[in-house]
């Protein structure tokens, strides 16, 4: 029976990876931050009463900025595998919190690697580092593969660049089984609400149900290679089961503009959109609505651009080449973009229907527009 330690266990990937590893018979330890409210929504279904013996899902308080905490936990857990997923993961927010992002995402990675080294676990513990397609940043070549040069375009990406290289360096310097997964964007119903895909599927559901008037977005031209988180966490595990430690690109190989993702989300519930205008004046209107459940009239404006969501430096185009993962590890994604959008819309429509019932019953519900 193997033991895994997941930092960022309460995040999107942490939740899917926990489920996956538990299904493989692992004992899973997770790092969670102390918060003034419960922050374990995504893993609550895995929670086990701490008074029960032989638990296989155990959460520990900690923080990526606290070396002594990380060293102590790794010493106690003695993990076979560490998945370092914890990060301040929002690109736009990293422009507002650059120093903290560098500390948690960059130095945080060093703290994990060095804890393993200090504890003499180099030969026992394999380490997965959550690297990112944001490393490619300003387009150097398409599609982007393991050999494409990096050009990070945000404090987040620069911090992750440190994480990438310190992982490579510890592998080479201390012979550690430490690997980077360079993952392109991956989404799901568990995606954080302020990332663009989830912001869109939540808003499309709320607009359809009459709970929200309009969706405001930033750059509609940005193109992303969107996959499903469930497919990507499987690959994280495969990376640590490989014969030797290497770095891997994980992507679908298809790219889609934000504008098209919006169209697909609305179409999923029978609402056809038409776009008019350009740049900051671009808007989308309802062209037709074939779903009798929704009272949307043709001509209703449902999308406008708000420049506050523009980034000081943007990553325009990401499209990944995962040939190495496919051919050497046999990784094949099960979801395409249509299936992803469909699952996210189904989830959010159900969630917002609950909100609507609550509102009808006289209870308050809230929606934040970030
Ligand atoms: P999320 O933002 O959903 O989850 C991030 C996790 O990190 C949360 O559990 C969060 O805790 C935790 N965390 C943040 N800061 C700290 C800290 N200082 N100490 C301890 N824990 C912390 O991210 P995803 O699940 O989407 O992504 C997982 C990892 O993969 C991240 O490192 C991300 O940068 C990277 N990545 C993600 C991609 C994607 O498309 N999703 C693509 C490529 C890389 P809390 O719940 O308390 O906020
Ligand atoms: P990204 O994801 O920056 O690629 O980072 P995000 O969903 O935030 O943005 C994708 C693209 O959409 C554009 N965009 C908007 N983005 C947000 N969040 N909100 C908006 O209103 C909006 N309007 C347009 C953005 O400008 C961008 O071009 C994600 C994170 O998960 C990182 O942690 C991870 O490393 C990368 O994916 C790969």
From TrEMBL:
Which GO terms label this protein's molecular function in UniProt? GDP-mannose 4,6-dehydratase activity
Q: Which cofactor does it need?
A: NADP(+)
Tell me the ranges covered by the NAD(P)-binding domain, including all copies: 5-344
Q: Recorded E.C. number(s)?
A: 4.2.1.47
Q: What does this protein do?
A: Catalyzes the conversion of GDP-D-mannose to GDP-4-dehydro-6-deoxy-D-mannose.
UniProt lists the family membership as follows:
Belongs to the NAD(P)-dependent epimerase/dehydratase family. GDP-mannose 4,6-dehydratase subfamily.
Under which name does UniProt file this protein? GDP-mannose 4,6-dehydratase
What organism is the protein native to? Autumnicola tepida
Q: What is the organism lineage in this UniProt record?
A: Bacteria, Pseudomonadati, Bacteroidota, Flavobacteriia, Flavobacteriales
Gene that encodes the chain = gmd
